[in-house]
Design a protein that fits this description.
This protein has about 400 residues and is α/β, with parallel strands linked by helices. It is built from eleven helices and 17 strands. Strand 2 and strand 3 form a beta hairpin.
Length: about 400
């Protein structure tokens, strides 16, 4: 394993880092500072869609740097227009706002919901509903929307105006809606992930989401999807909402859109497009360099038929993880996920944590990441090959043998 810094660091202590320093990558592989090679099933946390040091992306961005990298949203930006046009042409949305991250995209969505409540529903205050176990980012409003109290601790008072319901539970959602109505409050929006990633890799259930869509339409509530982790082909369709057979009124995207470069976006249908000049802005959002990265990723997903690859490799990965459960039935419980976002769930009485498994996997030169205390999340680049999935499974099995036998 690579060396970790021993000298005092000037970096604030906001991360619990694994003891390895990664210095370069190629495809689904990364190398540490001592030359050891690791199979990367984290992909920058579902971000490096085309893997590491992709030639097409590298060449595209090199050309962009020789052209222009940043100006300002005071002026029209050709690359921004091209990326927005691609996203609209390939989704249910009609327009796009660009920012720099998933948290910023969700922040924009929250502001959109607030303005929708104020202007369309004639409310001074309205409620935004989100799911328990959700994760929507680290800004104060986004973390307030996150339905996990442990993320709120130490940052109170959190932003008011959020209430939470159990994910995939129609009865509980309807009960909360009635409770809010009886208190003479009004819901302006629901912010929800089509698959909960950080919350433990829980795919959305079709019946729940169809009921949710119908209720939101009936009550004139905006249905906003957080597609930060599920968007850009991660589930085997371009957007997670396509797995559910419904369309949101708006959705957010980031992570995989830039292929490892900082970009986020809020996409909206026409009836939800209520922002006016001055309502929201971003200095770096939609800059030429980031948009060229996004446009390159979009085009390569189509050109390389990566959605088909995600479906095939996702099935292979899921089947392999199920086979691992048969080998460790006392310690492993189930597999959850879609495409190339898969979660291997530990039994509740297993004393080994997902974090320890991720740490031990480093000894097998494999990168995986926890999703909570009892789920190992596997989110490799969308370009991963059949033999690399087999290698991933082999190294994960070796890891589990070290801990469970």
């Amino acid at each position: 394993m690579g060396s970790s810094p021993t000298a005092p660091t000037s970096i604030m202590g906001t991360y619990q880092r694994f003891p390895v320093t990664l210095v370069r990558g190629k495809g689904c592989w990364v190398w540490d500072d001592s030359g050891k090679r690791y199979l990367d099933a984290v992909a920058g946390i579902a971000t490096c869609s085309l893997g590491h040091s992709d030639k097409v992306l590298r060449d595209s961005l090199s050309k962009q740097l020789n052209k222009i990298q940043h100006i300002s949203n005071l002026y029209k930006i050709q690359e921004q227009e091209e990326l927005a046009n691609w996203l609209v042409a390939n989704s249910c949305a009609d327009s796009v706002f660009f920012c720099n991250s998933g948290a910023e995209a969700n922040e924009a969505a929250i502001k959109l919901a607030r303005k929708y409540g104020n202007t369309k529903l004639n409310l001074n205050e309205s409620i935004i509903l989100s799911a328990k176990g959700s994760f929507h980012g680290r800004t104060l409003a986004a973390v307030s929307a996150t339905g996990q109290p442990n993320y709120h601790k130490g940052f109170e008072p959190i932003v008011k105006g959020f209430k939470y319901f159990p994910y995939n539970n129609s009865d509980a959602f309807e009960a909360l809606l009635l409770e809010i109505k009886s208190s003479r409050e009004t819901v302006s929006a629901v912010l929800i992930e089509p698959l909960q990633g950080e919350g433990g890799v829980y795919p959305g259930e079709l019946n729940f989401f169809k009921s949710l869509r119908n209720l939101c339409t009936k009550e004139k509530i905006l249905l906003i999807f957080d597609e930060v982790q599920t968007g850009m082909g991660r589930t085997g369709t371009l957007w997670g909402y396509e797995q559910l057979g419904i369309e949101p009124d708006a959705f957010t995207v980031a992570k995989g859109l830039g292929g490892g470069h900082a970009i986020g976006a809020l996409l909206v249908k026409n009836h939800a497009n209520i922002f006016k000049p001055g309502d929201h802005a971003s200095t770096f959002g939609g800059n030429p360099f980031a948009c060229k990265a996004g446009l390159t990723v979009c085009k390569e997903i189509v050109k390389r038929n990566l959605l088909s690859n995600v479906q095939q490799r996702g099935h292979q990965l899921s089947e392999g993880l199920i086979e691992l459960i048969s080998k460790f039935p006392k310690e492993l419980k189930e597999v959850r996920g879609l495409g190339l976002i898969q979660g291997l769930v530990l039994n509740q009485d297993t004393k080994i944590s997902s974090k320890l498994i991720a740490e031990t996997a480093l000894q097998q030169k494999l990168l995986v990441v926890p999703a909570g205390a009892n789920v190992i999340r596997i989110i490799p680049p969308l370009i991963i090959k059949k033999n690399e999935v087999n290698e991933l499974l082999s190294r994960l099995e070796s890891t589990l043998k070290l801990l469970f036998t």
